[in-house]
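Project standup — Tuesday

K.O.: blocked on the structure for the chain from last sprint. Re-posting the sequence here as requested.
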Amino acid sequence: MARRKSSTFEDLVHVAAKIPWWASLALACFTFGALHYMAGKRPDPHAVISLTDMAPFIRASYVQTFANILQYILPSALVLGAVLGFGKKADIGDAQVGRPAATTAKSSCPDCGALMLKKKARRGINAGSEFLSCSTFPKCRGTREI
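H.V.: unblocked you, prediction finished:
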């Protein structure tokens, strides 16, 4: 059973691995450049004359601080995703969402007569075991054990 992703960094790496490697590297360069520019813009503390001028100064300080940190984290995740996704072809269908693609079986549904698909249970008592499910799900909920 596959390990669940536990952080936003891992989610970003996973998404970066799904897009073409060259697009992920280009996005990493753009992200670093944009965040580096934002991190370099220092708010002027001498522009604060009254308390009403304090809010834009604080906002600019927060943006500068977060950009200073994220300018290294986001491009790193994108480059790591590009390395992991290098040479992989894009998946199609359910596999692109993280679900394994169902294979078709030669039997028909006991309820509606449609084609049955071979699937693997992900939850419940039968987690990990394979079963046949109706191809018209959720309209028809016909299943069979294998």
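K.O.: great, moving the ticket to review. Residues 93-145 form one domain. The chain has two domains: 8-85, 93-145.
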